[in-house]
Structure formats: structure tokens, C-alpha cells
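Lab notebook, bench 4. The sequencing result for the construct came back, and we need a structural model before the next group meeting so we can plan mutations. Quick request posted to the team channel:

Model the 3D structure of this chain.
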Amino acid sequence: MKISQILDKIDENQLFVPAFQREYVWKKEDAKQLVRSLLKDYPTGTMLTWETGNPPELKGPHKYSASQGAVKLILDGQQRITTLYLLIRGDLPPYYTDEEVQTNIRGLHVNLESMELEYYKKTRMMNDPRWVNITDIFQSKTNALDVIKDLGSDYSGDPLKIVENVGLVKNILEREFLEQTVPVKANIKEAIDIFYRVNSSGVNLTDAELALAQISGYWPDARGQIKAKLFEMAESGWVFKLDFFIYCLLGVLHYQGSKLEKLHDPENNDALRAAWSRLSGDTLDYVCNLLREYAYVDHTKEINSVYALVPMIVLAYQKGKTKLSEAEIKRAVKWFYYSQLRTRYVSQTQQKLDKDLGIIRDTERPFDALLKLIEEERRLTITPEEFIGVGIQHPLWGLMKWYFKSRGAKCLTTGIGIRQNMGTKYSLEWDHIFPFSVLSNNGYGWEQRHKYRLAQEITNRAVLTQTANRSKSANPAKDYLSKAQSTFSHSLRDQVIPEDDSLWEIGRYEDFLEERRRMLAAQLNAYLESITVTEEIDTKLSVAELIEEGENHGIELKATLRWDQRLEKVNKNLEGVILKTIAAFSNREGGVLFIGVADKKDIDGLGADYSTLKDASRDGFEQHLLNLVSSAYGTDYAAMGLKVSFPIVDETEICMVEINAGKKPLYTEVADKNGAKTKKFFIRRGNSSHEMPLVEVADYVANHFG
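Done. Here's the predicted structure in C-alpha cell form:
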């Protein structure tokens, strides 16, 4: 289909974008690259459409009517098509509003002599007629003759080149986009599955966006409702992306952060809608207000990872109408501060949410346990050395601001409190205490890397209102701080600025930094500790984490109990291996045996074993296993010596056998190749079970079992 036809069909309400598609996210560089490829006749990809007489919710104000018959929906290629619409029509396509276009890519200019593409730069383009807004060419507001005329008689280039290049630009309208069409017989679920497969192979969509597309198949207004809440919260300073809300839904319904496909199934419909109603109607606002009230967080710009809110939201949702007690709030706030300071969710976010939300679900005092997890990875105590050379992007800066606000700190110039203030003039900014221009003149410029970093260090920063920062001149620090100290009592103290005026001299700048680092470290540590007392709660590893440890002295992985995967039949020798493993653990220090997990940690499950049993179920498997243990080691041992459970890992049921350290030795009957049976003694050594030589058994039993 020609590009001109695509745009016409959009205007004529024949080509639409489904509501499950994300918003426009391309950047200016993406737009330049697309136009450059079109001008050079390079491949620009295909367009995937779905022809249907029963479309899902559509983006934009148009409502489908059955009288229209079959219409086409863009499943893949809408970012490119939207880019072309913006540049060719010079206006938003009917399926988008201003809020849904993250970057305005209009205003692309082309040099009609060199065909260079660039966005408007006044100094370069203002007096050069060769630079023309590409939209003006498509809209016939500019033509080659006008450009040649403006170039004047002194122009030394080839005017025919200008004419030729205007033609090249206009010929973009005649370029073909190869179209692939999902047939009209496909239903909504099938179309979304195709959309999902097309986009999941690349990096175009996040897992959460793909999950939202699937959700929209059974809840058509999902995207619209979630976006409405997104815009509502943004007006109060809480700016999130759609992804965040999808993780909240996954968290409250499944206590997970990585299995977004759990939201794909239409069976989620009722539970998902009910969960969103509670989240949007109460829980999200409640948690944000708690952070504002107790943690002094006024907006998301102060947070380095908003995913730290997810465990708090899940716990608040779990509590329901009872809400969190003050003690629970303080524990949550303390953990939140450390999650930001020690960058809990800056990497491996999904895996960490899995672990943390499992603790929220299973632990009575979850934030004590979550704090312990952070401490296992990073030291909690802040040291003065952590401040050296770090700038305002460092999480210490966020913690400093929250602490200053907790003390009721004021702008050093206006005396206005540094909580969220009314009017843009009083929004918060930060500036150097020792002016950079003064520091630069004293050897702290960019020419010396280390010195420059010291000049930009957060210990040389104060929090000011915008109006104060705009009026603040490059006065020496001594003058600036003296005035603040005399005008607003405690203003320096509350922003933890040394009040020893001998440190305010430029010659003692590094002494000033050293003293403020010491003061900040001491006061921040004391503040964090004072929020609440947390208990030393340790949590056990999850089953998935145990398996990830791999085979060792305390863990053994077995793919099956009795089904031989190589021979594809029952092999009772495998049952003997299981018994040998149980005895080896019991005869040493105990351990855990997983059945249904291959030695390379692949989760195979128990299906093959189930199929070999008369009672092909979990109960049948457990009974068969316990019968084997009873026959080998006695009924008492089967009842007291081990515990059998069936956890779900990666949505697959496996068997977990927890073996206690035995109180008496277990001897295992083993048949040789001739069928002769003998008793043998096995112990765990390293990551496998070993037969102990007969001459050593008596001494070992005497020493180990007493």
C-alpha cells in the first residue's frame, strides 16, 4: 500500500490503531532515520494489519459501527506510520492526543542541496533558504522555484538539483509499504497472539506492554482506564509508566514480578478488573500519601526506582480496609529509604520483585526480612567516603533531601520550607554553595577531573526554591552563608551545613567538604536508625533459589523417580538410586532431594512418573515413594525421617524430599549383577552419594551416631 493511501485511509476512518497498542514513543533520531531510508530507497519494514468486522476497542474518538463492514487495524508498524503522518500532515493522527505523543518529531528540516536532515537550528538555518521544513514540501507551502528565488542570483549551485530533490521528498508519498494482513476470520484473541509474537521477538515492546496487549483482548477498556489513573496521579507529581501498573496488578494477584504471562489468560478477567478497581480507587493513592507524609517524598522525581513502591502497594492491598499500622508504616519507610540508597531495583528488577513479593506474602514482618536481604548484598551504614566525588544523580542526594525535609529545612534565601510548594517559582532546585565559577578560577574546572568532581559533589549543594536559585549570584560562600545564617535561624543546621565560618573560605574548600561528609554520614545513619527498630529476621531460600544453587553436599537433583528417559520405560534401578540418596543424606547431615528436576536444573516435572502409576496423581506418587522408603528403612523412618511436598516451580509441579539427619544408621540393600543382595552404607560426600568401605563403617557409626 502506498504511503499516501495509508494516510488517506486513516483520515477516512478505514484504518485504525487498536487500543491495546502503546503510545507514540519514537524519538527525533528515529524519525530522521526513517525519512533518510525513504529518500535513499532503502527497505523500511512491513506493515501488519488485521482485517476484521468485529474490532476491539480503538484508539481515538471514533466508535466502530457494524455498518462500516470490515475495517483494518494496524498491528505492527504504527510507530513508522505515525511518524509519517506527523511529518506529512503536520498534525496528530486522529488516534492520538498530545499526551500520548512522548516526543514531538515535527519540524524536521531538509537541506535541498545536500539532502541532509536536521531539526531546526537557528544559527545554521535562519538565513539559508536551502533548509526547508519537510512538512511544508508535502503540504505544498514551499516549492523548488520559491527556494531558488530566495537563493538569489549569487547562488553558485545547480538549481536543477533543488528541483530534483524537492521531487525526491514528494516521491515519499508514492513509496510502497509492504502489507501483510491477518485474515478477517481471525478473532480478537488470535490477532493479539499474532501481535504478541511479532513484537516479542524484538526489543520494541516491554514484557509489560505485551501483557497489557493481551489483557486488552479480554478487557477492552484496560488501557484507557489505566492511562486515566496515570494522568490523574501525574497531576499530583506521581509520574509512572503503564508498565508500573501492570507490575502492581501482577503483584497483588500473583505475588510475582517476572511471570507477566500469568495475566494473559482471559480467566484473569474478573479478578483483574476487581484488583484494578481497588488499586485505582484506593491503594495507589494511599501508598503515595504514606510516602509523602512519613517519608517526605513529594513526587516521583525524587525516587531512583519506583518499583520499590510495588512491595508496599502489595502489602497495603493485602491488608485491605484494615490499612497498615503506624509500626508497619515505619518499617516500610525505613526499608524504602534503604531500597533507594542501595539501589535495590536498578537491575534484575523482575527477579528481585519475585523474591520480595514472596516475602510479603509469607512473612509476618516482611519489611524487616526485606531489609535483611538488602544488608546481605550491601552494607547499610553510610560512610563519609561514599560522598566523595558523587553528583546529584547519586541516591545519597535523594536521601539528603528527604532528611532535610524531615527537619523542616528552609530555602537559604527565601526562608520558604523545602516541602512541595505552590507555583513553579517555588519548585525545588539545587545549587552550589561554593559557586562553580569561583571554584573554577581556583583550580576546580573541568581540566582536572578529580578537582572538577569535587566541585560538583553533593556536599557542595544546598536545596533552594527556583526563585532563589535564579536570583543567586556568584557571591563567595562566606557572604552567602553568613547572610543565610543571620536571616533564617537554624537554616544551615537543618541542611547540615558546617557553621564554622573558617571553613567557608575558598582556601578551605576541601576541609568544608570533609566536614560536611562526616556530618551527613553521622546524621543520616542516626535518622535511619531512629525511624523504627527492626528485628533480625532471616528468611529461608525459596525452592527456586535452592534449585538454582545446584547439586552440593545438601542438595540432589533427580529428573525422575522411576521413568527411564533414555530407555523410555520404567526402570526400578532408578528407585534404588533414590533410596541410596535418601540414606546418604540421613547418614550424614541431612539434605534435600528434588525429583522432577534434571541435573542441569531443568524443571521437567513429574508427568512421566505419574503416567507409570495406577493412581496417576500427586497422592499416588507420594504413596509409592513412601512405600519404597518404608520397605527399605521401616515405617517409623518413613513417617518421621523425611518430609515430602510438591512445590510449583516455573508453573510445574515437582517433588521435594527434605531428609533429616538420622538418629540411627540406614543400610541400603543393593543387588549385584547376579541378583545377590547385600547391605551397603552410603554417606553424602560433596555433591554425590558414596559407598563407605566396610572396614570404616563401624568407626563412623560409633563416632557419628554415638
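DSSP finds 29 helices and 21 strands in the chain.
Will bring this to the meeting.
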